[in-house]
Amino acid sequence: MDKETGSWRGALYQKTFDDEYRGLRRRCASGKSCDTDDLRGMLKYLYEMEGSDWLGRGEVQNITLAATIAAYESFIRREGCSPAPGEVHEKVEDKRF
Fold first, then answer.
1. Torsion angle defined by CA atoms of residues 28, 15, 96 and 6, in that order, rounded to the nearest 10 degrees
2. For 6-25, how does the pLDDT look when each residue is reduced to its tens digit (9 = 90+)?
């Protein structure tokens, strides 16, 4: 993979992650459906969606979905709930993109 081809993937992943994380912060700040159970429920749905790719989502949608999942995981660990013992508090980065 050449440098230029890989850069759009990384840029898309980072932009999607940042946008999702920012959106989750705004959602919680406004008090709209932002308890831990809601966030975990959405994350569960995203995991199911990730595993249901029998029609072939395509590279752009796979990157977007991976970044969205990472943003939810990171937000839940950092801000959405108390972390479980031994959980890492660092941003999740997907090295595939």
1. 180
2. 689 999 999 999 999 999 99
Identify the pLDDT of residue 86: 45
Q: How confident is the model at residue 35 (pLDDT cuts 50, 70, 90)?
A: confident
Residue 91 lies in a domain: no
Count Cβ atoms within 10 A of the Cβ of residue 42 and give its class: 0-12 exposed, 13-18 middle, 19 or more buried. middle
In a domain, 87, yes or no: no
Domain that holds residue 49: 3-80
**Is residue 4 helix, strand or coil?**
helix
| pTM of the predicted structure, to 2 decimals | 0.74
Structure tokens at 23: 């959106």
Q: Is 14 part of any domain?
A: yes
Tracing tokens 């920012």 back to the chain, one arrives at 22
